[in-house]
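Changelog-adjacent note: as of this version, every example in the card shows the full chain rather than a window. The one below runs 183 residues end to end.
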Amino acid sequence: MSDQDRIEILSDRELAKTLVSLATQVLEQVEDSRSLMLLGIPTRGVQLSRVLTRELERLSGHHIAQGAIDPTFHRDDLDRIGTRLVQTTTLPCNVENRQVLLVDDVIFTGRTARAALEALQAWGRAQRVMLLVMVDRGHRELPIQPDFCGRRILSKRSETIELRLRDVDEEEGVFLKQFSRTT
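Full-length structure tokens:
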């Protein structure tokens, strides 16, 4: 896919501003930021949670627990979407009495978030669970909404939205990819 087949939704500068805004919103909403634990959902949610953790630590002045949770085996749509290589769930500490922030790049049908909630329950009972996404693209199949959202972009089902982060990519930003039909 060429660069001509994608539209920039957020530039690197806009993405940086959005991350600061999201981190500020999170700190305003949690009772005690020392009880906060970010868990990224593979694949880009893990990288996004690392970047967001750095910003939260900068703003709060203290360490923020950060890890990853892979909901693959809790999905109800594996036959439709196919399986991918399962990633390790890494919890930095016990989830009991924690304010857990699930972090994902894009929310679409809501099925990944539902599976992540189910996967989290296997590790204990958090005090509170919240969901942060960089982009909400609509098309929900389940009544799941993010608590924190960088941008709401209505897209076609045939389009995809991609978060690019400098930590893992050669660029940074959010892009809408359009698929051109060839006849």
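Structural remarks: The radius of gyration is 16 Å.
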